[in-house]
Design brief:
The complex is a heterodimer of chains A (316) and B (256).
Chain A: H1 6-27, H2 33-58, H3 66-83, H4 88-110, H5 115-135, H6 154-172, H7 175-185, H8 187-192, H9 197-220, H10 233-246, H11 251-267, H12 275-289, H13 296-315
Chain B: E1 2-13, E2 16-27, E3 31-35, H1 42-49, E4 57-63, E5 67-69, H2 78-81, E6 83-85, H3 98-105, H4 114-119, H5 122-141, H6 157-170, E7 175-179, H7 187-203, E8 207-211, H8 215-221, E9 224-229, E10 232-237, H9 239-243, H10 246-253
Parallel strand pairs in B: 3-8, 3-9, 6-7, 7-8
Antiparallel strand pairs in B: 1-2, 1-4, 4-5, 9-10
The chains are: A mainly alpha (316), B alpha/beta (256).
Chain lengths: 316, 256
């Protein structure tokens, strides 16, 4: 009744069936390359949104520098696979590693700051990373880095997304995740109960950065070409919009948000002049009528109840 | 030997001396009360005891799990040292369930690590189910076990106070600091709380320090009462002595 219970077996089979079905459709050509490109974008956005949700939605630390971690991952993987001609797994590992180290190094000084100040500091960090990228000739500077081998396949994409969602949701349902949610809810009380708030903030920043790095690697090794400008402030905002749109502190919300927003902008490509206007109106309406995001409260409650029920059966 | 020793403790905020030159000690196994008019520095004193503020001068020494002085106080380490507290303006985690709130109190007794949390290793299941079973026992004491899944914000005020006490107890403290535990409770609830606190003290082998304005509670269960006024300790002694102390009467009622 523990790891291998009925529910997990069911989830596992659903995961595998989706993988096999979509893989079949891609191989048979039913999903063409244009559609697959959008699937890749959705997958990358899910990883980014879920990892940012861990930082912003669950722990309550407002970060505007998430794209910077993605760029570190993208460049790390690009250098490993294109310049050093090493296999993709080495690129992904390097991407995760360097992004996580960056998260750790940036997190320690900045996470003493609260709210708006933290947002400004992370914003500054994002710009710094961009400027550094623009000025290093080895990685192409402003012209960017091209001829990156296209290693991102359906398998890599799908299992990266599944791993991110699984690990992050496991984390938030452990005592560590509880401590993070407590920090969001009331930092002083959390501290008085023995939660080392600095440790947890830095920890989630590092974990979040790690997954953003993986997303960066997938991005670089799908689109052949990266340049520092692709990971600027606007990209960070895009990720934040997905998180808020889907619901802060809801993983299912982040997934739904990433899928829905990607589909909306896909459809809006037919009216390029009005695209951003309609997109903004949709965001506006969602925020007015569902201030907690798509799955904000509902997702949170669903997730709480299920957790509690599991616990009840565990304590039996 | 006293388990809490406060030596010439002062705390100044700019020109205001919120706590001024307080010396006192508390023996293990007692319930002591701290009373005084509003703004007398009682909560500041608690914040000094729990490391939220660091003293401007003077020191606090605990003899709990080990000897600790206020130089090494950090808010998140107090629970480990054996000190847990509640807050005057209830600080529950409003969107978390009662169960999760109390589990946060249990936080320091869980350390199965980050990797087992990420991958749900067997130690995750073992530790979590132990923790939940212990928390459930605590909730039963406070008659809250049927509400374990309710978000904290949905409880009535009096029950929120109880959850806060349960959360503090989950940290397995030696010293429990209660900041106005009966505030917002009706007389019947206050009476229940009074007997509950005495029972908790014996059951969990605690020392309790409480700030309270409800004199029936203070006089009913405290073996010793400290009276604060303008940041200073103006009197201490048994409830009977305090009730007849002219300085205390003056602080509360005014006078020549």
């Amino acid at each position: 009744m523990k790891l291998f219970n009925l529910k997990n077996a069911f989830s596992l089979s659903v995961v595998l069936v989706i993988y096999a079905a979509a893989g079949l459709l891609i191989n048979s050509g039913f999903i063409d390359s244009y559609l697959f490109l959008n699937i890749v974008l959705i997958g990358i956005n899910i990883i980014l949104a879920v990892s940012l949700n861990l930082i912003t939605g669950f722990t309550g630390q407002f970060s505007l520098g998430h794209a910077a971690f993605m760029s570190i991952g993208a460049y790390a993987s690009a250098v490993i696979t294109a310049k050093l001609s090493l296999p993709f797994w080495a690129g992904v590992a390097a991407a995760a590693f360097f992004a996580a180290v960056a998260g750790l190094v940036i997190g320690i000084p900045t996470l003493r700051l609260k709210g708006d100040y933290l947002a400004i500091a992370t914003l500054g960090f994002g710009e710094i990373i961009k400027i550094i990228g623009l000025n290093i000739d080895y990685i192409g500077g402003a012209t960017g880095l091209n001829d990156i081998p296209q290693y991102t396949t359906w398998t890599w994409l799908y299992f990266s997304v599944v791993a991110t969602v699984l690990l992050v949701s496991n984390f938030v349902r452990s005592y560590n995740g509880r401590a993070c949610i407590a920090i969001r809810e009331d930092e002083i009380a959390a501290e008085a109960m023995g939660v080392n708030t600095t440790y947890y903030k830095v920890l989630v920043f590092t974990i979040g950065a790690l997954f953003a790095g993986v997303a960066g690697a997938l991005y670089a090794n799908y689109f052949y070409f990266i340049k520092p400008d692709s990971f600027g402030f606007m990209k960070s905002i895009d990720i934040l919009v997905i998180v808020v749109f889907g619901g802060m502190g809801s993983i299912s919300g982040s997934i739904a948000g990433a899928v829905l927003l990607s589909i909306i902008s896909l459809f809006l490509q037919s009216i390029p002049e009005l695209r951003m206007v309609v997109y903004s109106v949709i965001l506006f309406l969602i925020m007015v009528y569902r201030p907690n995001g798509l799955l904000g409260k509902a997702g949170f409650k669903f997730f709480k109840k299920r957790g509690a029920r599991n616990a009840y059966s565990q304590s039996r | 030997m006293p388990i809490v020793k406060v030596d010439k403790l002062s705390k100044a905020f700019g020109g205001i001396r919120a706590v001024s030159d307080i010396s006192m000690s508390v023996e293990g196994g007692e319930i002591v009360g701290i009373i005084g008019p509003n703004g007398a520095g009682k909560t500041t004193f608690f914040n000094l005891l729990t490391g939220i503020y660091s003293p401007s001068s003077g020191a606090i020494t605990y003899q709990l799990n080990k000897e600790v002085s206020s130089k090494s106080f950090k808010p998140h380490k107090m629970a480990k040292y054996g000190v847990a507290r509640t807050f005057q303006n209830i600080r529950l985690f409003k969107n978390m369930s009662i169960m999760d709130n109390v589990l946060i109190g249990y936080h320091n007794n869980l350390d199965y690590g980050v990797v087992p949390s990420l991958f749900r290793l067997p130690s995750y299941y073992r530790n979590e189910s132990n923790a939940r079973a212990e928390v459930l026992k605590l909730l039963e004491i406070f008659k809250l076990s049927d509400k374990e899944n309710e978000p904290a914000s949905r409880l009535p005020y009096g029950e929120q106070r109880k959850v806060e006490i349960a959360r503090a107890l989950a940290a397995k403290p030696k010293l429990l600091l209660l900041d106005e535990p009966a505030a917002g409770m009706n007389p019947r609830e206050t009476q229940e709380l009074t007997s509950l606190l005495t029972w908790i003290k014996d059951e969990f082998k605690l020392t309790i320090m409480l700030i309270e304005h409800d004199m029936s509670l203070v006089m009913g269960i405290c073996s010793k009462v400290f009276v604060f006024d303008y940041g200073m300790l103006i009197a201490s002694g048994s409830p009977y002595e305090i009730q007849n102390n002219s300085q205390v009467i003056k602080a509360y009622l005014g006078g020549e």
